[in-house]
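Researcher: We're reviewing a set of sequences before deciding which ones to prioritize for further study. For each one, I'd like a predicted 3D structure that I can look through quickly. This is Cytochrome P450. If possible, include the structure in token form so it fits the rest of the review sheet.
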Amino acid sequence: MEIFENATLREASVGLEQYATLPRLAVVGLVFCLTFLLWRPQASSQPPSLQEAIPLVSNTYLFMTNKEAFIRKAADFVRGRFDIVQFRLGLKKIYLVTGEKNVQALMKSTPGLRAETGVETLLESVWAMPKEEVQHWRLDKTGRGKTPLPGTEGLPDDRRFWYISHQIYDNYLTAKKYADNYTLKFYDIFEKHLDSMPVSSEWSTFGVYDWVRHQMAECALMSVMGTHIIDMNPGFLDALWDTDRVTPDLVAGFPRWMQPGPYDIRDKFYAMARKWVETSMAQFDFDGPDQDVDWEPLFGARVTREQAKWMSQNHCGETLGGFFGTFAAGVVANSVPAATWALMELLKDPELYQEVRAEVQTAVVTDPETGKRSMNVPKLLTLPLLQSVYVETMRLHVSYSIFRAVTQPVTIGGYQIEEGAAVLATTCIAHVDDAAWNAQGTHPASQFWGARHIKFVEEVDEKGNKATVPKFAMAARPSSFFPYGGGQSICPGRHVAKQHLLMMLALLLARFEIEMIEWVNGDGSKSDREPEHVSAYVGVLAMPPDRDMKARWRKMW
Ligand code: HEM
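Model: Here's the predicted structure for Cytochrome P450, in token form for your review sheet.
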């Protein structure tokens, strides 16, 4: 280590000569301490490399065959010792970045780092886009911002596909007005679904994961993509889940001749999505009275309609099927495992379950005339303990890595990062970093602690009475929490996803009494252990449980 290139240190060590009369050991100790305190990596230095038995092979092989083990190996290597480590995947040099400050560099628009999102690599393998159309998207290097990235000017505005698509999401999905309206639509649909179930003093049993992935998923899908898609395609959700199951194989990118099964499953699902978008395009009157409504049954939410309108101008039916099939999966395939884990975490901890249930009851309102009960939606969305449970769920059950391409040399954490490399930050490290999440040292970051994000503060009401009340306050900074990615390409559905999840939990907890019975395997037999994440989903967002929870419930109202 070239620590004496550091002028400050060199001066410090020279200055130490005046202490020659001190015992030698004390001087050595002092030098050591100063070295430790004053040394900062130089911008010219390179971070340590992740060791591997066979250079250029072992790490790549481990990454390809067992991503979870690879990330664990990298995490163990950096933990508490380094902020950044480098390794190669094939010939590509990758820098794994950790620590709040360093990760921030990836989230903001740091010159030299270009957002390289998962979506771009999926055009062909997952969206099933024909090669000529992939070319249009690949040619567009102008970025998602209003102004094209430096050096990419000149592409006509109507060919800036990434920007146009991003704008549609920004305007009609992320914007508060629309996110809130879609949430209310979900509330409406989900409430009607629960209304159709009988109030009973008798218990009945159900599988938590099974119920969420069918009932809640259908309601969430209809709130964003309308009812027509389900009505005209019996088995749409089953086809979606089948495709979700083979998505890791598709992402791996092996050609059809090597794995025809996953491609056939995907194509069957996309054919359904294509049939739906083509008939909806034909039936919807884009100049009619519904042209500006927030929701209608053919397309569902306005964001879906606007995307369909724009995509149809530039893309063939095959691409439309792939795009909207993937969009449908985006709407439910992450929210469902997340909602399942949240419910399981509550039900396996009866004390936490009762606390959240009591909190949710404070958002129930009763109509004084009809006696009908409903939820105060704005209130339920801000309940502190419910939000804390949501953050814990996303922190521990979603796994994602932010990638950035290095387009010019850049310095992160004192290290120089080479042009042509890629930089990556992963939730597998950030989300379980004790330094960030367990500052009080009471609950390890690897543990689900429902009240982690609660702070008690003193409040004075209008009458001057003092009370200590719980407030939601995330235990770490936002740069330690990125289940939705970060920067310009952050998930545009994040507000809808969060609100769907809070809403589902609140409605179930308010209207039902629910108790865990036991863990069960896929075939319904009793399991002697809790579920674990399906490891193929590490790095691919919300990780489903590998088994279910059998529970019993009865509807109170
Ligand atoms: C727990 C739930 C969810 C998680 C963890 C999640 C996470 C993510 C992540 C990490 C990305 C990629 C960001 C990037 O490329 O850097 C993404 C993209 C996306 N998400 Fe989500 N998401 C969730 C739910 C939703 C929902 C409910 C919707 C729609 C209502 C949605 C719509 C999208 C869309 C359209 C994209 C692609 C955006 C683009 O092309 O730029 N997501 N999501």
